[in-house]
């Protein structure tokens, strides 16, 4: 995919702050510090467009990134950070749910997990939610460069079993730092978005 330009278009906590147009969107959900920002940056070949942080739970808004003026990536607030108050967690949950339920631009929700760790109960709840609303159920398993390739399939099986995924092909091993499977993911995304990959 040829990225001509990419920018942070909006940061929102309510629908009135969402971009108002008909551009298609792919949203990314996952635990705090699981690598969503690094994934977005690597896909867009940018170093710091989506801000990464060593402090989990920092992203508290829905961030809309417009790409080539024709589609968007949407970074949802991370969930599951233990040191955030219950009130704050509930607030984030409502922000995420409102977007996922009301946003007509949304074409797909992708769950981001860390391939090194078994998905949590919150990951399972999010994945079940994604599937219940008719989305495909793609899972990007990040940080594959942190384990040996011989262990990829073993860890993917753990993810598959925990999330009760029927089709292993929906789980895509990925590395932001090594750019593993960037083009493969783009092949899937361009199909979802209905755009030409190499335009």
Automatic annotation (TrEMBL):
Give any GO molecular function from the UniProt entry.
Answer: GTP binding
Question: EngB-type G domain: from which residue to which, for each copy?
Answer: 22-195
GO cellular component terms given for this protein? cytosol
- Sequence intervals crossing the membrane: none
Entry cofactors:
Mg(2+)
Statement: the UniProt record of this protein carries the keyword Repeat: no
Q: Which Pfam families match?
A: MMR_HSR1
Q: Which CDD domains match?
A: YihA_EngB
SUPFAM superfamilies (alphabetical): P-loop containing nucleoside triphosphate hydrolases (SSF52540)
Key words, A-Z: Cell cycle, Cell division, GTP-binding, Magnesium, Metal-binding, Nucleotide-binding, Septation
Q: Name one GO biological process term.
A: division septum assembly
Functionally, this protein is described as follows: Necessary for normal cell division and for the maintenance of normal septation.
Instruction: Give the protein family.
Output: Belongs to the TRAFAC class TrmE-Era-EngA-EngB-Septin-like GTPase superfamily. EngB GTPase family.
This one is known as Probable GTP-binding protein EngB
Q: Which species is the source of this protein? A: Paratissierella segnis
What taxonomic lineage is listed for the species of origin?
A: Bacteria, Bacillati, Bacillota, Tissierellia, Tissierellales
The gene from which this protein is expressed is engB
